[in-house]
Each structure stands twice: as structure tokens, then as C-alpha cells.
Amino acid sequence: MIDIHSHILPGIDDGSPDMETSIRMAEIAASEGIEIMVATPHFISKDKEIERERVLKKTEELNEYIKSRVGLDIAVYPGEEVFISPDVPDLFSQGKLITLFDGGKYLLVELPMMSIPPYTKDVLHALMLKGVKPIIAHPERNREIARDMAKLRELVSLGALVQVNSLSFYGVFGREAKHAAQRIVGEGMAQFMATDCHTARARSPRYLKTEQILPRSLINLLMRENPEKVMTGRDIDVSGGGYRKNGKMNFFQKVAFFLGQL
Ligand SMILES: [Fe+2]
Fold first, then answer.
1. Domain range annotation of the chain
2. Which end of the chain is less enclosed by CB atoms within 10 A, N or C?
3. How remote is the CA of residue 194 from the centroid of ligand 1, in Å?
């Protein structure tokens, strides 16, 4: 599996504090069947503007530790989780942001917890005009979206992609986020699931328990097939979206139905 959202780099943000924790996190990820991880430390304009070179260097160091000193079969690639702000498109043009896998095509974008800022649509649209696809990180954790899915549908209809957190299904972020994650996946709005791991404890890189509520084929789509496309710079097929077009239940609607029975 491929985890496109993690805070596994040591000592760079609120994720892993040191190399020991990062190695422990990599061990947990490996035990869950994760083979590839994207390190996505927080980038916050005018607040925590981590330097590109620092992320690349730390990713290299971590890979070196994982491979030669611990012997784990996990590869870590660079990326960032970019907090939304009006200057994000300009920062991207200036080469200051790191896209997923540093591939230049997909950018992980984070919304605030409580609201959807008024400039959100403009920023997402401007990024797409620049040829980069925004992936909205864990929208189930955003209060406005959790209470009104139409808010997310609007962003999805603009062309934004969606990543849900595996740990949201575990209930780690509360009932509201768990419910919202189920609805997002049930309606076919998510293209990715990732761990968004921060620690080797409660927020560790785990996803296997989601097998209890999501079909294996769906987990494969969200954690292997689509992330592989991001890794190789290919387009993501969003035609599996679960909107009712012809009255028949499609795959995602069946999932929604199933989830509704929980
Ligand atoms: Fe994150």
C-alpha cells in the first residue's frame, strides 16, 4: 500500500519528534503492509514556511536509516501538506512548495478545522490553472463539511480530489468525523485514503482495521491504485463518483448503503 499523507519526518513539524519515533512509525507501517510513504510536513504560509531543501534532505536521511540501519522495506518520498491561504498558487509558481512525490502534479492542501475560508474555491481553481491538482486532506475533520456535505461536493465539482484519513474510521477524531468519512467514501467523493500519522501511538500509520467496514477492492483503489497514479504522474479517474444518475445503485452507493447499516 501507499500512504500519501504522513508526518514521519523527525523534528520538522508536530509529527515525529525524533529519528527513533520515525523508525518505530516505519515499523508499524510495514507491519500494516505499507511499502511506500510520502512525508508531508505542514507548510503554513507566513508562519511555518519549511524550506524545500530541508524536507528533501530529511527525507534522504530517513530513507538511509530505514534501509541500511533498520533494514525495513519502506521507501519514503518527499511532499508537503500545505495549509490553504490566498498566496498558495503564487508560492507554487515560485517553486517553494513540494507536491506529492515531488512530481509537480498533485498538491496536498489542508483546510482549517472549523471553516471553509472564502478564498478556497479561487485558490483551488488557480492551482488547477497552473496544472497542479489539489487533493483536499481529511475534509471529514472540517466542521462545516462534516455538517453539510454539499460544501465538499461543491469543491469536488470544481475538480478537487479528496483524501480521507484511515484513522477517522477508527473514531480517533470523534463521531462526527467518523460519520463524515463514511459519507464521503459512501458518496464516492474520495480518491485516496491515507494515515496522516503523527506518532507511533494513537496517531500511528495504521489502516488495516478499515477492512472491517470497507471492501478490500475499495481500499486497494484508495491506497494503492490511485496513489500509484500520483506517484507516476498519471491522471485519476473520478468517474466512479457516487452521484445518482440513472436510479441504479453503483458500487459506491452500495458501499454507502452498507456503511449506513453499521
Ligand atoms: Fe497531516
1. 2-260
2. C
3. 9
What rounded mean pLDDT belongs to the chain? 92
CA of 237 to the centre of ligand 1 (A): 24
Mean pLDDT of 102-115: 97
Beta bridge partners of 90: none
Residue 4: what pLDDT? 98
**How far does the centroid of ligand 1 lie from the alpha carbon of residue 14, in Å?**
9
Torsion of the alpha carbons at 154, 233, 46 and 198, rounded to the nearest 10: 90
Q: Separation of 16 CA from ligand 1 center, angstroms?
A: 12
Task: Say which CATH class 2-260 falls into.
Answer: alpha beta
Counted residue by residue, the chain has a size of: 262
How close is the Cα of 109 to the center of ligand 1, in Å? 9
**What pLDDT shows up at residue 258?**
63
One-letter amino acid for residue 87 of the chain: D
Q: 116-128: per-residue pLDDT in tens?
A: 999 999 999 999 9
CA of 218 to the centre of ligand 1 (A): 22
Within 80-145, strands assigned E span 81-83, 106-110, 133-137
